[in-house]
Amino acid sequence: MTQLKSHAPGQRGFTLVETMLAIAILTIGIVALLAVFGTAVAATQNAQENLIARQKALETMESIYTARNTQQIIFSQIANISSGGIFTGGPVQLLSAGPDGIVNTADDLDFPATGVCPTGPECITLPGPDGILGTADDQPMSLANFQREIQIGSVLESDGVTIDPNLKQITVTVSYFTGGSSIPRAYTVNALISAFR
Q: How far apart are CA 140 and CA 127, in angstroms?
């Protein structure tokens, strides 16, 4: 006959309550870890779009300075259309520079269809799963959710009243929507441009 041995005094196992409490704490920890992982994935996607917005804003600013430096446009044309200049007011899609070679002017055109990119706003090619650009698995990315706005304003002289005729402030803003969000993100570049090269 076998006898059941009882536990020695003072020796105990886990109770059901302690086990349930431990499971609850582990569950909370795992859910928190998954939330952090989700946030990191979203931040990675936003980083790519923010980099594109930054590059497009800087590219726009560079084209304005180049047009001034090469005397393609005169200083008085560096203004919004409402102020007698050539630059459109308000946000517009990222279209191809027209015959004048300057973006956000009245002659801008749709980009032509190339490869898998349709006619319309700019489309860029990103590396595919292999991470190498220029291979068969490259993927297109339409920039239809991006908009660019150029605002050009006057700058006051040191007296705070007189407008400086040889200096203007340029603000380029590239805004975009991310992953189903209804709130746009934006990247803004500010610079001063003078009549002198």
A: 9
Place of tokens 């996607």: 45
Mention every residue, 6+ apart, whose C-beta is less than 8 A from residue 92: 104, 108, 147, 148, 149
Cα angle vertex 38, ends 33, 39, to 5°? 100
More confident residue, 116 or 112: 112
Beta bridge partners of residue 191, listed in sequence order: 170
Whether 115 is covered by a domain: the verdict is no
Domains identified in the chain, total number: 1
Alpha-carbon distance 10 to 3, whole Å?
21
**Which residues make Cβ contacts (< 8 Å) with residue 14, sequence separation at least 6?**
22
Task: Report which DSSP code applies to 162.
Answer: S
pLDDT per residue as tens digits for the range 18-27: 889 999 999 9
- For the residues of 104-158, what is the DSSP string, one character each? SBTT-BPBPPBTTBPSBS-EEEE--TT--TTSTT-EEEE-TTEEEEEEEEEEE-T
Query: What residue numbers bound the domain in which 78 lies?
Result: 16-108+144-194
Give the rounded distance of the alpha carbon of 65 from its chain centre.
22
Query: How many Å apart are CA 123 and CA 95, to the nearest integer?
Result: 10
The sign of the torsion formed by the CA atoms of 36, 38, 43, 44 equals: positive
